[in-house]
Amino acid sequence: MILTTTPQVDGYTIREYRGVVTGETIIGANVFKDFMAGIRDIVGGRSSSYEKVLREALDTSMQEMIQRAQSLGCNAIVGIDIDYETIGASGSMLMVATSGTAVVV
């Protein structure tokens, strides 16, 4: 599967546009990760626990989008957009949404 944020793929001609495909993932961050991230905010540095959760959510969302494109008989997704949001009463859930156009090249 060819994946790109651009509207076309260099060296390929898009033969068919089959529609928009999406992937959504919502992951809860547990209390320990919240606590450790709070300490990182105070003393500085990166929060590797949150980075790991974000990466997992992105990978899951992308795989879901790829599966939807494959089910349409596509071999590429162009114009990919990735959005991150916190949701829930206290912002304790992380959402990653991906979207793009499924195409045949």
Structural features, described:
The protein has 105 residues and is an alpha+beta fold. It contains 2 helices and 4 strands. The N and C termini lie close together (10 Å). The model has no long low-confidence stretch (mean pLDDT 85).
Quick overview:
This protein has 105 residues and is of the alpha+beta class. Helices cover 35% and strands 37% of the residues.
Short key terms for the protein model shown above:
alpha+beta, four-stranded mixed sheet, 4 strands
Order of helices and strands: EEHHEE
Number of helices: 2
Q: Tell me, what's the shape?
A: elongated
Residue stretches low in confidence (pLDDT < 50, at least 5 long) are none
Percent helix:
25-40%
Query: How large is the share of residues in beta strands?
Result: 35-45%
The helix-and-strand class reads alpha+beta
How are the strands of the biggest sheet laid out side by side? Answer: 1-3-4-2
Main β-sheet description: 4 strands, mixed
Mean pLDDT: 85
Distance between the termini: 10 Å
Number of strands: 4
Question: How big is the Rg?
Answer: 17 Å
Write the layout of secondary structure elements.
Blueprint: E1 2-3, E2 16-28, H1 31-43, H2 48-71, E3 76-87, E4 93-104
